[in-house]
Structure formats: C-alpha cells, structure tokens
Amino acid sequence: MQRPDKIAEYLETVRQQIRWKRAQPVVLEEIKDHLSDLKSALLEGGLDEETATDKAVAEMGDPILVGEQLDYVHRPKPDWMLFALTGVMLLLGVALQYFIDSNLDGAWTLEQQLAWGGMAVIAMLAAYFADFTIVGKYPKLVFSLLCAISVVACFFTGTVRGTASYAIYPLLLFPTAFAGLVYSMRNKGYGGLILCGAALVVPALLSMIVPNLTVFFLLGVSCLILLTAAVFKGWFNVKKLSAMFILYGSTAAVLAILFFMIMGVGYRAERARVAFNPSLDPDGMGYIGTTIQRILSHSQFIGSGMPLNDYGVSVNASNLLAARILPEINTDYLLTYLTYEFGWITFLLIMALFTAFIIRAIMLCIKQKSVLGFLTSTAIISTFGVQLIVYIVSNLGILLFSPLSLPLVSYGKMALVTNAFLIGLLLSVFRTGDLVRDKAETVAGRHNSFIRYDNGRIIIDLIRPKAME
Hints:
Elements lengths: L5 H12 L5 H22 L4 H12 L2 H11 L6 H24 L6 H20 L4 H4 L1 H18 L11 H4 L2 H11 L4 H21 L3 H20 L7 H24 L2 H11 L10 H11 L17 H11 L8 H9 L1 H23 L4 H25 L18 H19 L18 E4 L2 E4 L9
Antiparallel strand pairs: 1-2
Helix pairs in contact: 1-2, 1-4, 2-3, 5-6, 5-18, 6-20, 8-10, 8-11, 10-11, 10-12, 10-19, 11-12, 12-13, 12-19, 17-18, 18-19, 19-20
C-alpha cells in the first residue's frame, strides 16, 4: 500500500488557508524548498527517510496556523495614497475642462473628456489587475508587438500637421517594454548591455519617422535611466566604470550627430535659438513662446492676471483674450492659462500634486524586492516624469520640445488612456511586486525569502516591508 506524501499533505493544508490564489504558488514553493532542505539535513544526520520527513514537517509547525499567518501577510496591498493622488488628478482634469468649456461658450468638448476619462479608468483598472510580469516573461514578444503597432500607426493612420499622432502613444509604452528586455539580459555581460542599446534604435527611429522630437527625448532619457540603474546595481555583471563609459560615450556620440544634423539645417538651427529666446522672432517661430512669456508677466500670485494692456483690452475681457491668443489652452498650454486666470498659486499647487505622486512612487520603487518590479516601476515613473518636465518647461515659454500632455489633467484622448494604463501598471507593481521571484539569482542572492533555517530553528518572517503595508 502506497504511503501518503506527508509533505504534499502539509502543503495542501497550508494552501487551503491562503485566500489570495496568486500568492499560493510563491508561498508553497518557498515552504517546499525549506522542507526539502531540512529533510536533507536530517538525512545527513543519520535519520531514515520516513523519520526525517516526519521531523521536518513537525518542525515547520501546525500547517493551519502557518497558513493563517501567511494568509494575513500575503494579501494584495494597494497603495491608497497613490490611488488617491491619481483620482485627484483625474477629477482635476474633468473640473478644469468644465471650467474652460463654460468660460469659452462650449469651445472645448467636456463631454469627450468625460467619455475618454471613463475609458482611461477602465484601462487603468485593467492594467492594475493584470500580471505585470508579462513584460519580463515575454520581453521579445512584447517589444515586437509594440514595434508592429507603432509601424501601423505611423504609416496607416494618417497625419495631423505632418505628424503621425496616433503613433506617439504606443511609443510611450516602449520604456516599460524596454525594462523587460533589460531584465532578460541580466548576467549577460557587455553583450547584454550592447544588445539593449541596439534594441533602443528601433523605437528611436520610429520616433523620428513620426516625427516627434519630444518622444525621441523621452525614450532616450527613460531608457538611459534604466540602463544606468542596471549597471550600478551590477545586474549585467560588468565593470561599472567601463560600462558607464560605453553607455554614456555612445549617448554623447548620438547627441553630437543629432546636434550637427540640426544645426546644419537653417530653419532647425533658428528654431533652436528661438526656443530659448522667443523675442528673436516674436511674430514667427517665437510667437507662442513670446505670447506665453507676456501672459505670465501679467500674472499675479493669487487671482486673475492684470489687463493685457499691450493688446488694448479691458480687465473683464482679459481672461477671454488670454485664451484666444494662445492656442491649445486645454491641451498643450493649460498651466499657462491657469496661472494667468488664478495666479501662480495654482501653478504651485498643481506642481505639489504631481511632486507628491512622483516622490511616493519613487519611494515604493526603491523598496521593490525583485529586479523586474524595480525596472518596470522605474520605466513608468521615468515616462511620467519626462512628460511632466517637458510640459512645465513649455508652459514657461521655453519650447525646445513640444509638450505631450500634463498626465491625466490636460485634455486628451489616447494620451489620457495611455497614461492611465501606465499608472495602473505601476500600481499593479506596488500591489503584487512582493510576490515576484526573479528567475536568475542576483548578486544579493535569495534576499526575498521569508523562510530561513538558522541553527536548528525554522524562522518564518511575517513582517512585510513598510512599502507594502
């Protein structure tokens, strides 16, 4: 008669106590490994197999009690602070569009903002409940699909003002896909580092085909941050100084080539100069920059800005004129308009909202136990942060790069949905990242094990990191 497998029975009893199904495989694998290690140690001590098994199971403790304790610890832990900040940004976007729509007699489409806002919430929740580890499990597939989608968007969806606008949005997902590639290239030395750099050429070329210099800048900065972090943490197993020389040397070479290409074309060189000093061409390429600076110069710290005397208008008409002389105030230049309409205090409050979001996200990113969780969250935060920085600089009148969006706040369609999806994926990382086990051991080893054997005692660490509480 076949004897029952006591280890399997023990594991099944523990499993029945853990309600979060996604946590069950991770917890059971950890317990099984330690039971096997303990059993092997007892066998080496001279015990027979059956006795060693019984003793190992007994030393692990009551399976019901162990399972209940692990169930208490291993539950999905949403970060409510980030959820709240995300909700505030979404509601702020709707409120601002309502204000603009009301003050400009329906010039903007509030109904569309609400409709796309609903789709953004759906996209965010879908990403939140999805398994973010797919970017690490199938990095080449994810990267290739994004390339294919971007190519289709570039050549088959039409253009707006000479730009394949729909191609911009899949390109915003590339840093996250690139995080999966970096993850898959760990421990592959300089070859892995060079392959990652070569893979970046594809989305970079696509961003030039679109063409959109802001997306090119975003891709470069975000992916450079990922590679820098991976090198510093030793995940490529290369000499850090040599790797940084390769990384930043090649980046400098690309930038030098682009600089000479831009400066070699007359209108591009002039546009670069005007970006920093719009007054050089106030009625031409510097019109928007000059207009922004003029509007901001009439803004106050609190309250509506002073009359735009340069245009000969009254106080009552000043806000209407500010909206009409500056195009795209609900999309590209929302901060400029709000600063003039309500004062610099509004600008500072909105910046405080975004700063709180980014700081909180960075704090949770740093505390990620897994390499994949760290890389994925870093990619998303970088994508979010670069958009924000470019938007702020543009709304201050420096138009070296055209703004993409003020994430979740400015009027948008696909931009709103794409950013909501990325934030949902970021929240997913912070919700479940504690369960991720990297396929290959890193230099730090099994640092995320919650069970350890010490001097004849089995210790189950039930204290979770503060980031997950």
